[in-house]
User: Fold these one by one.
Assistant:
Number 1:
Amino acid sequence: MRITLVQPPLTLEERYGVKHQSGGETIPLGLAYLASSVRAAGHKTKIIDAEINHWNLKEATKKIMETTPDLIGLTAVTISIDNAARVAEEAKKIKPEVIVLIGGHHFTTAPEETLNLFPVFDIGVLGEGEETLVELAAVLEKYGLAQDELKKVKGLIFKDEAGNFIRTPVRERIKNLDALPKPAFDLLGDITIYSPPAHTVRKFPACTLVASRGCPGQCTFCTRSIYGNILSQHSAQYMLDMVLELYHKYGIREVQFRDDNFTVFRDRLLEFCKLLKAQKINFVWTALGRVDMVDPEMLRAMKEAGCWQIWVGVESGNNEILKLIKKYTTKEKITQAIKWIKEAGMGVGAFFIMGHPGETKETIRETIDLALSLPIDEFHCTFLTPLPGSEIYRTWKKYGVFHEDWKNLNEWRPVFIPFGVSQEEMERYSKMFYRKFYFRPRIDLNYLKKVRSPRHLRIYFSGFLALLDWVFKRKASAN
């Protein structure tokens, strides 16, 4: 079959809201894995990334249909599911017989609701898609949309002739990720146009990788619809092979590992550090970790292998809220872990969330005070957002008011307002947090030291102007 896998249009403004000036555009790694799997099965495969190319609906549809697809596979997050449906509608206007699939985290969390809202999708893929798509393509090639045959493929949902939902048996998780073909980076075009947010990058070109699936955490704000708490991982050697391919073939000089928790596989991490260090290449990297899963030995190994920054989820500066959101950390653990990271010679990035259940003006101030007291180099503070599939999505009515609109669930808008604080106060405190954190000599000096290219300078300056405009454009402020 001719299979075209699609990242639908999504602007930086839609993804990052008022902070779009400092946003990044990362490799659609999921599509690259899917593409390599179906290509290995003998199908003619293309990837169309409308987001990175900044194509609108008509431009994206034109590019897709130029590939003359028999099958279009769309992925979407919650804020882009509507855009994905519009692409599918336009494609079917041109070629009504084309088969359209939908998959991804959002769809797996809300499949029936999504298919009811957007009947243009012929079939939905639930959970991990690599094995499912290979089997499905074989069935579609031979039998088309014959439902008796589709029912034999695990991990699908679709409607029968009467409009009833049919779910096929659950697809087992892929236990050995090394069995998957390497992601089809070659189908993405010029990889160097992708980049994480510039202020998180030390060396360009840079890109992101995910080398494991699943997380042991129970955080109430996270969706675990696909991987849950079942963990799987690439081996250290597989990871090294991906890094070396990106380094030698595509010129990548930095990778950000976006595993939900890169530090959970301690033995693999130490082996990867050993293998990478032995390569002696001009390469740096960063990773996400948990404050309760790092230790001095691990951190020293990461630093020696080229890791220059670790991002940790702090979320709140109030121990009761940390307990309520099932973070299972404390301010004391957070402080200790950040101290260890700095002692190892690495930078610290920290994620915070404002607007938790039980949040008040006092707890928000605690969070800001904690952030300012720690040697954190940069941070993100988003608003708590009840995403489909998360625990808070099921329980939010106990804690506040939720203005649910999938298009607005980008975590940068205060759509959930806890009973202890107003929306206006949330917005004022968010601005105050950014102002107090970034307008400090230590932070500004650190950014000046990180300027290593005109690209850095241009993006930092643009982001700084956008921050100034956002923080000060209203007179109202928190004290």
Note: The chain has two domains: 2-167, 190-472.
Number 2:
Amino acid sequence: MSLITELVWLLLYLYVLCQCGEINKGLSRMAVLFITCTSFLLLFSLLRFDAVWLVITILVVLFDCFYNEEPFILHWSYVLAPGGFLIIGKWLFASILYFQETEITILFLGFCLLLLMRKRTGKRVVYYLMISLVFIGMFAILRVSNKFQAIENKTTIVEFLNFFKISITGLAIFIFLLIETTFTGFKKEFERDTGKFRNEVLQNQYEEVKNVYLNMRGWRHDYHNHLQVIKAHLAFEQTEELGIYLNELEQELNRVDAYIKSGNIMLDAILNSKFSIMEKKKIIISCKTELSGVIPLPEVDLCVILGNLLDNAMEACEQLQQQERFIRVYIAVIKKQFYVSVQNSAKLVPNFNEKNYISEKRGNHGLGIKRVKALTEKYEGFLNLQNEPGIFAAEVTLPLNNIK
């Protein structure tokens, strides 16, 4: 077997491990692994030692166990599978079945691509089926041409078949690189958008915490003035005036204390923090909650759904004049269904795609709706987005029976 072919296999083997496993934490570690495996590959190839891939697989397993921060049990299949495939391929190459290098290479490319798809896309049967059909088809064509070449004596036909085999192998490599480039590009774009979205969320949380802190500091400052007024009324025995002042103070405290008291701590925290920001932006708020008991929805998911819907509504209102801004929120449990409705004023001509309601600017609005949609699908719920001239409405319905 050609040493160059085995070096190509080794590079593909390590690439799969870098993409699927956790051994790519540091270029120095990868360099040590590559040099070690290449040294054994060169040594055993010169000595005609057929168990070279068994040794390399053992080296990779030991490297992963000793230098990896993540337990080996979590991704052992991605470490053992390529090496196991090449051990079998090496045996088939030397056995009676006799598979040629190009045939094993095409099968190995398809096998590695299946491993990468399994890591990135989960259980998408259609991807597995398409990749299997493409690479098995090229393998079958190559196999037939190799058998035909074995019984053909004409030089021109043999040369054509050699060129044909090289073309098929090149096509397989091109398909592998094309699919890999596409998926890695999608992954990088998703990570970049997610990072930007996370930074914006953190910025919003910072503004909300800052607003709460400023309110608390303001009340702490006013607290001393209120005490002085109360002491003055007591000193002059002005009980009637003191009662009036305390009533006014109580009303003011009720107004600032919380916009919503639904009984659910997380729900109240989200609504009150968002409403405090909306009030500063001169948005008219209308909110009603009808809840009884504890909502079994995880607090993180509740924060994602409500936070994104309210942020999108607030973003839409900011594009309007102050007198046109309003947001209406209704949250209730209706017949074992957790229901959230958010309506807000919007432009007469929206700047988003009417088909999927994702902002054309491809910013937070699109990512927020995607997150909400993903959670509704997770709990087998329903997301309804409607737009009419001057108003946008979002409704989320989650069956409580599906929430564990």
Note: The chain has two domains: 3-186, 261-402.
